[in-house]
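Appendix B. Raw example, untouched.
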Amino acid sequence: MGYQRNFATVFCLTVLVTAIVTTTVSHAQDVIKRGAEIGSSSIVNLEQAMQNLDRYTEQTVILEGTINKVCAVKGCWMELVLDNASRGIRVTFKDYAFFVPTDSTGYDARLEGLFEQNIFSKPAADHLIAEGVNLSRNADGTATETSFVAQAVELRK
């Protein structure tokens, strides 16, 4: 009788632990993380930041939005937009150390990193435009872009 009771107890505990682990893994899989863990930087509204970039230069911040586009080749950049915006900011990844899934268009994103200003040569601008990046060209064919370099990324479907 004791054996059956112990077996039933162990069986019930095994089922319970399996259910807890499965639920935890399922919720963990809902978030795709790349790079470092997101820290405690200030959350900044993308639209407000773009209107006053000098205020946020050299300051690590957190941005939130939706992924509008992703590099289809390897996920080495993405475009982050606010709800209902047709254009946002291009996001690259610190030290080219990680990428995002190439099928993550439409995902909600939370990013931590820095704004930066880049001037691309004409050939570099041509390459980025061919990949689908929205760049505004300068008169000489170069392009100037404000982008965001993420050190930490969290994506949710």
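End of appendix B.
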